[in-house]
Each structure stands twice: as C-alpha cells, then as structure tokens.
Amino acid sequence: MGHLLEQAEALERSAADERVAYFDATGLDGTLLLDVGCGNGYSVAAWRRRGRRAVGVDSSLYRLSRWVSEHPGERPFVAADALALPFRSSRFDQVLSSGMLEHIGVVEEPGPYRVAALPGKERLRAAAVAELLRVTAPTGRVTLDFPNGWFPVDFWHGDRIGAFRLHPVPDVLNPSLRELRRYASGRAVEVLPLGTRLRFRQVSQRWWGRLLAGPVRLFLALLDALPRTLAARASAVASPFLVVRVSPGPAAPARP
Questions:
Q1: Is the Cβ–Cβ distance between 64 and 77 less than 8 Å?
Q2: Section 239-254 average pLDDT
Q3: Beta strand 77-79 pairing with 153-154
C-alpha cells in the first residue's frame, strides 16, 4: 500500500500544473478560490503561483501534514469534511472539487478493490454539493470532475495504478450527469469540454493503456467538437470522464 501511495502522489504532483492550467482556461472569475478534496495541495500551490488566493480542504490529517512539511510558514490548507466546510456562506469566488464526489457515501476496500454504497449515499452526496454551493459567491461557480458512472469502465480506481474496473451502469461509485443534476437541486449544470483535462497518465502505466490512448484522445476530441448541447448529451453516456460546472442560482426556466 505504501508503494501505491507513493505512485499516486507522484502522479498527483506531476499533474497539478496541467490540471490548474485546464481549469484556468475555462474562465474562472475572481481571485479567492477553494479546492475541496485537494489531496496534498499540489494544485493549491499551483493556483497560488498563478496569483490566485487559493485555499485547500481535505479530510485527511496525513494530507495536511504533507502540506505543512513541504510549505513551512504557509497554511492555506484546512483539514475538514466536505459536508461541513468551516467557511461562511458565499465566501469564495470559485469552488473546485476534483475526483472527490465519488468517494462520498461509499465504502472502498482493497485487495481486490471493491466498493459498496452506504445507507443514504444519495443524501450525503447531495449535501456535499449543497455545501460547495453554499460557500460559493452568487457570481461564482462550482466546478467538479469525476469518472462517469454511465461509462462501463472505470480507469481511476483499483488496487494498482493504471488498473481498470468493469462495473454495472449506473455505477455505485462514480456519479453520472443525471445524478449530479439531482444533487444540484434545480441549479444550472453545464458540461465542459474535456480538452486537455485527461493526460492518460495512469493507464499509460500499462501496455494496453498506451495502445488505447491515441484512439480515445481522438474520440474525446470528436465529442468536444460537437455543438455544446449535443456534446453534453453524448458525453453523459459516452465519455469516461466528466467536468461539470454548477451555478449557485436556479436554472433558467424552460422556454414554452
């Protein structure tokens, strides 16, 4: 497990600047930014290098200790539960949460990797999304990304880096766009183009991942090239990964 953690942290560190560059290019107004489920905080540091006043939240005290050891004197990092963020309402210009939502309301066990839903999983995930929205300014947005629960293969969770997991549809672990719309409770939800968000680092650890990476990149580029409404519908079922943006305000009423 220690070796797996070291591998995961190395991937997290190497991906931080590219992840931040992708989100920055999607158009994020304001300077005060919250990253919920920030891991060791590599992305928080990357945001701060770009001039943002970024704050990180993670529930793990180990993650906090890593930040403290690597950034002495800087403490824009809080150990807290995503369901009870220690910030006042409307505090942040933008809120991000990457690869966090799927870990709420489930129990995950290794050797072999397996996952089961807790009672009230839907309620817990809805509460987490509501909490992210609560601390977001009315002019801001909440941006989340996660593996798509309607895509039958999960390339991000397993006992090894680069493992894959076949699962029923919808998945007990990974959310779907339909589920997220329920959690967002009537707010406007926008599916963003994947663009450069996926770099296939994990699956490239395996020969089959290197073989598939090129065709998958082409397929995802074709999805991005579709008109946005059509692309969102296609991505909801055909993309292995989703990036969505949620408005704190209610969705506009449908036109008659």
A1: yes
A2: 85
A3: unpaired
